[in-house]
Amino acid sequence: MDVRAHLSMLLHLDKCIGCHTCSVACKNIWTDRRGAEYMWWNNVETRPGTGYPTGWENQQHYGGGWRRNDKGKLGLALHSRPKALANLFFSPKMPEIDDYYEPFTFRYEDLITAPESDQQPTAIPISQITGLPMEIEGGPNWDDDLSGSDIYARNDPSLDAVPKAIRHQLEEIERVVFSYLPRICNHCLNPSCIGSCPSGAIYKRSEDGVVLVNESKCRAWRMCVSACPYKKVYYNWSTGKSEKCIHCFPRLETGQAPACAHSCVGRIRYIGVLLYDAERIPETAAVPEDRLLETQSDIILDPSDPEVIEAARVAGIDDGWMDAARRSPVYQFVKEWKIALPLHSEYRTIPMMYYVPPLSPIMTTVEQSLIRLDLPDEEVDFELFHELDKARLPIAYLAKLFAAGDEKVIRRILRKMLAVRLYKRRQSISGEVDETTLRLVEEAGTSVTEIEATYRLTTLAKLAERFVLPPYNREVSIESLQDPLAHKGEVGVGYMRPPRRGS
Amino acid sequence: MNWNQVLFDVFPYVALTLAVLGTVVRWRARPSTVSSLSSQLLERRKLYWGSVAFHWGIIILLLAHLVVLILPRSVERWNQVPARLYALEMTGLALGVWTLVGLGILIFRRLSEPKVKAVTSSMDLVLLAVLTLQVVTGLWIALGYRFGSQWAPAVFVPYIRSLLSLQPRSDLVAALPWVLRLHALAFFVLLALLPFSRLVHILSLPLGYLTRPWQIVLRVRPRSVAPPLPRP
Questions:
Q1: Cα A224 vs. chain centroid, distance in angstroms?
Q2: B114–A237 C-beta distance less than 8 A
Q3: What span, in angstroms and rounded, lies between the C-alpha atoms of A194 and A69?
Q4: What is the value of ipTM here, to two decimals?
Q5: In angstroms, rounded to a whole number, what is the distance separating the alpha carbons of residues A199 and A263?
Q6: Does pLDDT of B227 surpass 50?
Q7: Which residues of B touch A278 (CB under 8 A)?
Q8: What is the pLDDT of residue A371?
Q9: Which residue in B215, B225, B231 has the most chain A C-beta atoms within 10 A of its own C-beta, making it the best mutation to test that interface?
């Protein structure tokens, strides 16, 4: 057993309001630079929808992730090693700027410098690449809230899994449904970006699992952009280097949560340590499709297991990290309550960011062609519990996103979440919980204690409970490289040189 | 010292020194500026037709030149059969045309696409001009001084070898037609430009990718707490 620690994020989609505060916080700190304007290391998508970049889930087109061949061996979907070298001069599956959007700003100075005229001056849109006037034709959230039509939603690659009849229903105006999907780099255990990089410039940190691009080694072969199935590695067209979400490691190292999580209005994000067995990564990534979810969950170790604790001690994992792992809210959601899943585990990169799938209201109940509106709220919920297929968001769709197509898992999770809701509603409305609800709790495979704990962490948890950040002991690793006494009186240790475009 | 000596006795060494020192300095002091500076993100269709043709064409031609330099006798022996000579020269000519077409597309793309133009430096334009000179003179020689592979081993290789053995003999090229000398000179200019332009990306050919493990994990923190360092 080779125990390593991972700083993971959990996103509770049932709480996401789609406000994009995370995206803006991230943009302000990291990507408000020339060449990076089009990058949204954190973005929020309306689903069903085509996402950003457009249709990123279509791996036939973009060639992201790993593929398991008939012999059970794993290889990049993008290329074999020799083919990578042959494709250096033109990377066939790489998205173009218009697959994201051409970054734009407005010529604001026109508003004050325009000559006197009968008309109001306007600020015309200009491209942030060329500086020339442009027609804005897209943006990172162009189909936000479906943009008033289902044209985008219809092109969602994940809708392929949904039966035709249900798809037709989705297009009816009364049944239109959407939910939000915030996405950052998944900081995978088996990242295909690292595997695809000819220069070997991308690496994973063993101490916390953050995947980073070494800007000094990157040579702009841009295979990572295509190989990442989540399209979360971006090419900076100005510096000629790839960039990606750095999980706000400078913030993590100083005890702050990543900016996206910290700024989250809906408090949907949780940060915590997960322990995993690095030895099992190759086999875990290569299991047959139907065992993906189970094995990817098995690779995460129990931080209270004496065997794991001993192995972690041997691996040099700090006690502070072990303590954080035991208090990890992510561990609770993922392993104890089992209501969180990774996004698209079938890409086989073993993503380490987890999602609690969203609940959705029941579709209007139609009886004898009359819409039944008289059903009391509690009963609607009970009805939903027993007939999840009546939920607005098709189970098949959620299964395609989070469970590699396994609807059973999604049903189990949604039932559990509904059980929490029904139990707490009964409790707060009538003061005591009736037999029917208790039976339902049992049916959902949960218990009253678990419900109380889930409820607490979901709704009441304060900052310190949502973000259980481990001590990084940066001073220790700095001392192993530099003698602090020799650098007495200086500000910081070492310096950075930001990448700039070479001639 | 006449011009011929300056250009063919001295300049090659200046170019080589610049190339070596410049590259070492840039590689070590400013590694974050070393990049192929791909613009595929901004435009892909023209790049496909231009970049693939240009790169493969010029790489194969460069290797062919290297073969003539290293194994002149073998090339001479190969060329003894006329059919083989024609095949070799035809292939070279075709590759040259292919390269020139690719280069033409790349230049057209760089000037006609506003987005690509936005990331074009003056060094890029200089480079494209010298590369064009290189390829055009090459084609000129292939057509006008048939057959290069036949006379080069006897006429040109001795000069390059004299350079490599540090006893430059510019007199060997003094009487050659000016196109030939321009072709050689363009190469030396490219050599000199190597560290100061995007050409430097040639040196980062990632052959290590063929053998490295898929995953790269770096340990930022020592495995156990490091022992205290001795005080200075």
A1: 18
A2: no
A3: 20
A4: 0.90
A5: 35
A6: no
A7: 217
A8: 52
A9: B215
Partner residue facing B36 (CB), from A130, A206, A219: A219
Q: Do B119 and A200 touch (CB under 8 A)?
A: no
- The domain that contains B64 carries what CATH number? 1.20.950.20
Cβ distance B215 to A476 less than 8 Å, yes or no, reads no
Compute the nearest-CA separation of B48 from chain A (Å): 6
Distance in Å, alpha carbon of A3 to nearest chain B alpha carbon: 12
Q: What's the Cα-to-Cα distance from A52 to each of A139, A168, B36, rounded to whole Å? A: 9, 24, 26
Q: How far is A314 from chain B (nearest CA, A)?
A: 9
Q: Residue B19 belongs to what domain range?
A: 3-210
Of residues B35, B212, B214, nearest to A240 (C-beta): B35
The residue of chain B nearest to residue A90, with distances taken between CA atoms, is: B48
Question: Could you tell me if residue B70 is inside a domain?
Answer: yes
pLDDT the model gives residue A432: 87
What is the DSSP-derived secondary structure letter of residue A95? P
Instruction: Classify residue B225: in a domain, yes or no.
Output: no
Q: How many other CB atoms are there within 10 angstroms of residue B56's CB atom?
A: 16
The runs of H, that is alpha helices, within B145-177 are 148-155, 157-164, 171-174
Give the domains, in start order, of chain A with CATH numbers.
1-96+145-360 (3.30.70.20), 361-464 (1.10.3650.10)
Task: Collect the ranges in chain A with pLDDT lower than 50.
Answer: 367-368
Residue B222 placed within a domain:
no
Of B33, B38, B114, the CB nearest to A500: B33
Summarize pLDDT for B173-224 with one digit per residue, the tens: 998 999 999 999 999 999 999 999 999 999 999 999 999 999 999 876 555 4
Q: Assess whether the previous peptide bond of A48 is cis (omega < 30° from 0).
A: yes
Let me know if residue B232 belongs to a domain: no
Three-class secondary structure of residue A382 per DSSP: helix
